[in-house]
Each structure stands twice: as C-alpha cells, then as structure tokens.
Amino acid sequence: MKANSPTDPLTPLARLPGVGAAVDSMRTAVDRVYGHRVMRRRSSEITAEAALRGARASAALSGADWALEEVRRRSDFGTDQQARTVGAALRVTAEAGQLLDIWRTSPMRVLARLHLVAAGGIAPEETVGRPRLAGEPVTEPGLESFGRPAPPADEAAARLDALSRLVIDGSQAPALVTAAVVHGELLTLRPFGTHNGLVARAAQRIVLIAGGLDPKSVAPVEVGHAEQGLDTYVQALDGYASGRPGGMAAWIAHCGRSVELGARESVAVCEALQRGAA
C-alpha cells in the first residue's frame, strides 16, 4: 500500500529494532499456509474454519472463552452476556470480509458498521454505530487490567480522524505495521462505549487482507493473540499506548507473532483435512 503523502508516519516504525525480523518471520509462516497442497483444492474451507476460530478467539479476549466445539454447535447466542459476546464476534468476523473496498476509502464507515453489527441489540440503541460522546462511559471486558483509561471523547475523536486519514493516505510500511497501529490505536482510544476489542481485532484482520498479506484470510491473527494469553496481550498493548519506540516495536512484534500462530493453526487444519480427520 503506497502512501499518497510525501510524509509517511508508519515507515519509521517499520525500521524499529526487531520489526523487520517480525515481518519476515510472519511472512514465512503465512507462505507456508498458502503453499500447502490442501489450499489449492479446499481454500474456501480453510477460510471458513479460520473465520470461526478467529471469532472464537476474539470473543475469548473479550471475556467469553468458549471451547471451539461449543461455538460450532450453538445456534442461540442471546441467552447471557458471554453468549452475546460470542455471537457478536461471529457477526463482526463475517461482516469484516464484506467491507474491504469501503475500508480503503472510508475507514470510519467501516468502524461504525462493525460496531453496529457487534453492539446492535446489546448496547443502548442511541450509542450503537457511533463514537462515544463526552461523559459517556466505556465498558470493555478483557481490558480491565489495562491501566490506561480511555481518553476523553474529544481527544479520541481527533485521534480517530487522524487514524482514518492515515488509512486513506496509505503507507509504504508492511501490512503488519499498519495493522498493528490500527489495532493498537483503536484499543487505546476505545472510541465506542462497548465492543472496542471486537471492532479493533476485526479492523486488524481487514488491514491484513486488504494489504495483500493474507488475501484469503487464512491466518487468523485473533487466534495468535488468544494463544499468547490475555495478560501478554494487555502488556504488549501497554507498550504501544506508551508511545515509546521500544514499546511500539514490541507491540508490532507481538502482532506478528499472533499472525504466525494463526497461520500455524490453519496449517494444522490443512493437515487434518489432508488426513481426512476434519
């Protein structure tokens, strides 16, 4: 993704220590999935399974850690808070794949749509699909241990607008860097009153697909975030939110490792299909 502006704020992040190695390691892992012989014949099945596993993992990071088979067999997701979170994660993951073209020109529309899909029927109707207003609280299960409070609504709105412009302008930085910044910024800002985690992780997925790294969406980054654990996720996010170069590099590397782990999960699915075991 090339930048239209002579100044590209993401390219310095790509040069931070350890980021290049994270990008290379992640690409190797993703290439392994795309090179698997099962992908040549059954890529749609791998994509569908990756979406399911990614949604399950995203819900787990938002406080609803269900077994994969429980998510697979359930049809009613409106019975309690955890069920509603799992249902929201499934809806958001499904919706993300429909929004790629809009993301490139109007990321704010995409974020609003993702929040509407996640929070509709759960959050107060007047707060759904729009950033929070002054005085409105933020409720974000999974981030209770994140010690940095959400910024005031006006600051969050200004930074969200800057993030939108960054996406529209594009960047010469690797897709991993852009995806990590979008994810980290949305979680730091928590621009919506609820469901920011689900929206942020779906946005990261969109950037990785739209950026050409994972065009068939078979490396579910959410799986990697969940596999590394919520404490590690929050600690890495704190590094991003600090604004310090070392912390931001660590967050980008964490996201790269998450893509690697997601890719490894899909390789295991490919091998199971090859054996006739799944």
Automatic annotation (TrEMBL):
SUPFAM superfamilies in UniProt: Fic-like
InterPro entries associated with the record: Fido, Fido-like_dom_sf
Domain Fido residues, every copy: 106-254
Protein name per Swiss-Prot or TrEMBL: Oxidoreductase
Species for this entry: Streptomyces sodiiphilus
